[in-house]
Amino acid sequence: MDDNTLLEIADLRIAFRVDRRTTLEAVRGVSFQVPRNATVALVGESGSGKSVSSLAVMGLLPPDTTVIDPASRIRFDGRDLLTLSADERRALCGKDIAMIFQEPMSSLNPVFTAGAQIGEVLRLHLGMSAAQARRRTLELLDEVGIPDPAVKIDAYPSQMSGGQQQRVMIAMAIACAPKLLIADEPTTALDVTIQKQIMELLARLQKRHAMAVLFITHDLGLVAQIADHVVVMRHGEVREAGPAQDVLQRPQDGYTKALLHCRPSLDARPWHLPVIADYLAEGPGASPLPPPHPLERQRGYRPDDQPLLVVNKLSKSFYLRQGWFGKREFQAVKDVSFTLARGKTLGVVGESGSGKTTVGLTLLRLHQATGGSAMFDGRDLLAMTAREFQAYKRRIQIIFQNPYASLNPRFTVGQILLEPMRIHRIGADDRERTAIAHGLLEKVGLPASAFQRYPHEFSGGQRQRIAIARCLTMQPEILVCDESVSALDVSVQAQVLNLLQDLQDEFGLSYIFISHDLSVVKYIADQVMVMHQGAVVEMADSDQLYRDPAHPYTRALLAAIPRHG
What we know:
Blueprint: E1 5-17, E2 23-35, E3 39-43, H1 50-58, E4 66-68, E5 73-76, E6 79-80, H2 86-92, E7 97-100, H3 104-107, H4 114-126, H5 130-143, H6 149-152, H7 162-174, E8 180-184, H8 192-209, E9 212-217, H9 220-226, E10 229-234, E11 237-243, H10 244-249, H11 254-262, H12 276-280, E12 307-322, E13 326-341, E14 345-349, H13 356-363, E15 371-376, E16 379-380, H14 386-393, E17 396-399, H15 413-423, H16 430-443, H17 460-472, E18 478-482, H18 490-507, E19 510-515, H19 518-524, E20 527-532, E21 535-541, H20 542-547, H21 552-559
Parallel strand pairs: 3-9, 3-10, 7-8, 8-9, 14-19, 14-20, 17-18, 18-19
Antiparallel strand pairs: 1-2, 1-4, 1-5, 5-6, 10-11, 12-13, 12-15, 15-16, 20-21
Helix pairs in contact: 4-5, 4-7, 5-7, 7-8, 15-16, 16-17, 17-18
C-alpha cells in the first residue's frame, strides 16, 4: 500500500450463513484501491456485492451471520480494519470514514430533528458542547445548501423533501471532515434535477475538503460526471477496473458494454433495447451478437389516431387540517387536459409533487376527483356510480412503482393471477383461468413453475413481470404505469420496457407512462405531458419536445439528464 492509497481492499471474500449447513458467497475475491482525494465509482446491479463491500469497510455487516475470509484485507490509511476492536472501529467510522445511505427517510431517525442528529455526531466524535454543536450544525446545513438553516435545524425529516433529507445525510457525513466518504446510491430515489444538485454538491465538497469518495451506483451516466476511476462488479466479482475515461469510452468487458448500452439513449430509439444477455454472449467461441432490428421506432400522434380517453380540466384537491376547526385546500392537480389515442403512449413527467401520480390514481378513482371529466368509450369515468364503474375497472389497470409492495406475499403467483379473473368472471371455470394464467406467464417471460411459487422467491424485475401479467388477466385497454421501471436495474429496466412495447404491439394497449426518468420517457412515449406544481406546462410529441422544448421548466429537466461518455 503506497502513500497515495487511502483505502485498499485485497482479496475480500464475504459469505452469509443461511442456516447451519449453508452459506451464500456474496463477495468473491474483490480487490481495488481508493487513492487519496480521488473519486472511485463502484458500479454494478443489485446482487453484485458492491454495497456488501462498502458495509464491510464500515463494519456494519451483521456479525452473527457474516463470514469474512481470514485472508481478506481492508486497509485504511495504513491500518487493517478487520483487526481493530469494536471500540477502535466505532471511533474511526463516522469520523475518518463516513457513509451516505441510499434511502434518507429510512436512515434518518423520524423522532429527532435534523439538528439533533447532526449534533450527535459532533458531540460524539469531536467532544463539542451542545452550543458548539448547534453553531457548527447551522454552518453545515448552509454548506450543503439547505434553505433557511435556522428554521430547518429544528425540523423533523418528515417535514423535509427527499432532496433536503439527503442533504442532511451529507451534512452528517462531512461533519467531522472525513478522509473517506462512501456514498451508496445517494441519488437513486431522487428526481433528475435534485439528482444533479446532489452530484454537484458532492463534487464541490470532495474538492473543498480534499476527501476521497467511494461512489456506489448502477448508473454509468452518473459515473461520467464524478468519477476518476471505475470498478465494475457482477455476482461478487470485479469484471473491469480502470480510469473512468477508459472504462466508459473503451470498455473491454461485455458486462460493462451492456451497462452502457442497456439504458435508453436520447439520440436513438432502437426497435428493442439491448439486454445483458446480448453482450455476455461475446467471447472466444461464442456466437456473434444478433443483428439489430433494421428500423428505429417512430413515435408521435397522427391525425388519424383514434382517441380512447379524453380528459378535460381534471382537478384534485386535498384538504389539510389547520387549527382546531379550520382546513386548508391543497390543489394537487389543476385543470389537466389531454387525449390518449388507442395503441399509443402518453408520457407524464415532472418532479416529485408535480401531481403526475395523482392524475393516474384519480383516473382509476383511487382518488376522488374534485373537478373535470374523463371520457372513455363515451362515458365519463369520474361521474359513474361505483356500481357502473365496476365494469370499467378491468379496462383500465395500473402497474405500481414498487414490485415488492404491490404483490400479496401470502398468495402464490397462481392465486395472484386467478383472483381478479374470478372477481370479474373471466373464464368459464378455474381450469380455463389457469390456462389463461399459464399463457400470460409465458407471455411475460416467466416459466410455468412460477405459478406455484411466492413473490419473495423472485427478483424485482420478475415481480414486475408478475404485476404486468396480473394486469393482463383483465384484458385491459389502458395501462397506467406509475414509475413502473424506476426501481429496477438498468438491464432489468430494458427487459421490462421491451416487454411493454411487445405487448403494445400485440394487443394495441394504450399506456399512461408516469416517470421522472426522461430518457425512458423519450424511448417509450409518443406524446409527453410535462407537469409542474399540479399544472401542465407543456405538451408535445416526444421528438418535438426533446428537440425543441418550449417551457423553461422542461429545458431544466432535460439539462439535468446524466450522460455518459
